[in-house]
Design a protein that fits this description.
Elements (H helix, E strand, L loop, with lengths): L8 E10 L6 H10 L12 E11 L2 E10 L6 H8 L5 E7 L10 H10 L10 E6 L8 H14 L4 E3 L8 H15 L1
Parallel strand pairs: 1-3, 1-4, 4-5, 5-6
Antiparallel strand pairs: 2-3
Bound molecules: guanosine-5'-triphosphate and magnesium ion.
């Protein structure tokens, strides 16, 4: 009668971080993975990667491969072939005081919709962030827009965040992982 070897499950998930130029895509990754923030802006060129390892619970190890993509969602067009997959998990970041950062063309919406569908037609988990809360006292307009965006996508979760002040960074990531694990 032997004790059973405790089974540890390991997962690797790809998460795209997308959104308009300068909204904070690189910053959320830096904050989340390296606990750092810099006010210095250096635009990402192409794609960067970072790996976050999470001891989710005593039996579950999760590796998040974070894809930090430069600029707008539109530029994902050619990248789509590289990714060649559906079921993409995403964090979409907009900037709370810049309405335009939530505007997507029909083409972009179509691409995002297509790529975030699972094989069975269900929606892969997403999280939407409305960032730079610290820049804005009144958040009412930003949250209305964000609500609207979530409504279009049927998103379950959005957050108003500040990567500078470390508000809702871990929470957003935790929500995403919870949903990925629940869908898997
Ligand atoms: P691209 O790579 O060009 O697409 O930009 P990005 O989305 O990666 O933006 P990045 O993370 O480089 O941030 C752009 C600027 O916004 C930098 O100067 C950051 O310091 C600043 N920034 C990011 N998050 C916040 C925030 O929550 N509050 C404030 N005040 N500034 C922020
Ligand atoms: Mg960047």
């Amino acid at each position: 009668a032997g004790g059973s070897v405790s089974e540890c499950k390991e997962y690797l998930f790809k998460v795209l971080v997308i959104g308009e130029l300068g909204v904070g895509k690189t910053s959320i990754i830096k904050r989340y993975v390296h606990q750092l923030f810099s006010q210095h802006y250096r635009a990402t060129i192409g794609v960067d990667f970072a790996l976050k390892v999470i001891n989710w619970d005593s039996k579950t190890l999760v590796r998040l491969q974070l894809w930090d993509i430069a600029g707008k969602a539109a530029r994902l067009g050619p990248l789509a072939n590289l990714l060649h997959s559906s079921s993409l998990r995403m964090m979409f970041t907009g900037q709370i005081n810049q309405r335009g950062t939530f505007d997507l063309s029909n083409r972009e919406l179509h691409w995002l919709d297509l790529k975030s569908k699972n094989a069975n037609g269900s929606q892969a988990p997403w999280v939407l962030l409305s960032n730079k809360l610290d820049l804005k006292r009144s958040t009412s307009r930003g949250s209305t827009l964000t609500h609207y965006f979530c409504y279009i996508f049927g998103l379950k979760r959005w957050c108003i965040s500040s990567f500078q002040d470390n508000i809702n960074v871990d929470e957003a990531a935790r929500f995403l992982v919870e949903n990925i694990l629940a869908n898997d």
